[in-house]
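task queued by scheduler; priority normal; single chain, no ligands, no partner chains; default sampling; output format set to structure tokens
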Amino acid sequence: MTMSAPLSQAKQELLRALIQNRDASSKDTPSNLIQFKKGEAGVPPFFFFPATDGGVSYFRHMAPHLPERRAFYGIQAPGFDEEREPLRSVEEVVDYGMRHLRALQPHGPYYIGGFCMGGLPSYELACRLQEAGEEVAMLVQVMPVFLRPWACLPGTDALQLRAIEDHHFIFERLLGIHVPLPMEKIRSLPETERYDYVTGLVRDGGYLKGPAEEHLFRHRMKMYEAGLSAMLNYKPQRRLKGHVEVLLVGRKEKNELELDMNTSYTVHLRALPPEQIRYHRLNGDAGALFSGSDPDTGDVARALGEFIK
């Protein structure tokens, strides 16, 4: 794809922002709780889980549109900053995050949410807090709706290939970046060589500059693979008390406002009776959250803010 220099630079910066997490606003909190809004004293914070790769840097785009009175924390996946090996199950992610969350807020009421795959750990966390006798005042999940052949995608027996295919979708659909990925060639490579090969293609396309960014990109794919393992292997064992609010975000003209309940990131919703799920539809592009582009980012964040006022 031929692009003008300014557009190419903009897309490089967008990809760079997605693979890094260096602009978190506060380091005064436990390692995987990243604060994006301070809030008022005495008002319970809002804790929000990210999508499959576990990074939360793009939450900064939502923060200005959320209620000023409530602090806003992203629950970053352990291992994202390479401080440890990534966790590969929803249960482990919640074990880790719950310790830090309760150190910051020992008792409810709790306001919890998740974006895309982040709906799974947010559900598990809410159930565990209820089991511990705590009040969960709000559980809200932002579900981006994209039309994909979910049943045909690689499963738990081919997590690395699924991670690569998903990155191709992220490049094309969410970032508008055209990086041809020859999947037959990639499948023929040993597992130890696949990420290096894909990284080389992205570098040769002009989207990565130098060994440091190449390393970060490989690590992001490793984190994404761990998130896939958590998502695809999660089997809810607990039942939520109360309702879950589900904000569906998609393009109406693309028929993206109906949630496919057979996807892996809706497994917890399938475990609930329909009357416990409240659906809300928003015509917009959830992919805009990664770039912060308006009006979609503001629309999504303000709709989310209505649940946590």
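post-processing summary
- Residues 5-9+149-230 form one domain.
- Residues 1-7, 21-30 have pLDDT under 50 and may be disordered.
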